[in-house]
Protein 1
Amino acid sequence: MKATPVRILYLSQILSHDHPRRAAFPDERLTVAELFKELNAEAHVVDATCEALPDPRGYAGVMVGGSAGSANDTEPWRLRLGEWMGTWQDVPLMGICGGHQLLARVLGARVAKMSRPQVGVHPLQLPGIPDFTGWVMHMHSERVEDVPPGATLWAEDVAGIQALRYPGHRWTVQFHAEMPESLAYGAGRGLGATAESWPQREVRAAVSGGLALFRAWLKDLR
């Protein structure tokens, strides 16, 4: 018998259509639907840019996705989201790219512009995740500069901090573990990736590794 799907709150930071960079990003409702179908999980997607943020205690955990802006930006919705993330520190969480950066900044770390964007597929080791392939997809121009108080450095590469772990089953990663192959190429090209930096074999490995990461996170929530 198939297990009952676990219910996750997904907070999107890029669904708003009035952002000037919005066209460079995929529709996250489609991305999340494909991801959660693969994971046998249910997602309640909330547009954090314009919708009220729910009480997360009605969900097994929370995912906070990437952003079209910066964790240092001061739009009212971003400040509300940062405050919300800082308040609910006892709720299991997975932060992705902008979600990774925003939580780190809220908890006292610096987030700063990189000398050059990291876009494409890159090698990375993520200890403790069964079946992690060692490849990840990057699409970011800022990074977390230091480890926030209470967090543990989980992974880093030549570009800096790539993953952090916090108490309470709260994991955050700089790379895009959530993006399916069907959307990766267009999103990568929109942010400057070349064919050489986006090879199909490594993209597929990164997608597989992302699923392995999410399965490991969900395992303790079921």
Protein 2
Amino acid sequence: MKARIASIWFAGLLLVPLAACGPADEDPEDVPVPGDPQFVRDPALDVDNISAHGEARSHNMGLNCMNCHQAHGPGKGRFTAAGTAIGPAGVPLAGGTVELRTAPNGQGDLVIAVEIDDNGNFFTTEPLPFPDESLFPFVRAPGAGGTAFMPFPTISGACNVCHVGAQRVRVE
């Protein structure tokens, strides 16, 4: 098998390169990419995968983790919540915690607390009530550091879909 690169184009601009694998004579448009319902996921990838303080096994800081870690993707584990926490200097924040709660501003019942790894990423395969129930994200920096929160609820744990570029949430 030879690997090829397929690309998504919009108004003549290259937006996202996508790797596609298949026989060299196969049309790249016929090869399913991650997220496509035709993409066949290896069942061996459906394992628990949860971030932890002190680990640095994650990658792709700032990108949407759930592009690959989903039912039609090649990532290890099907994430229910994932993203990258950003510190005051605009770089990934290591060692904090992301909480999902039933009320805003760090109030309400704690549904789950996910540790942020040394690369600034947090992720979990633990079951969550999305999209049937909305939750409020609350981020705690390590130690006695600052906090950040969303003042409105979300029904998705794919944090880096919205929180990219100028929309990143910084934990002061």
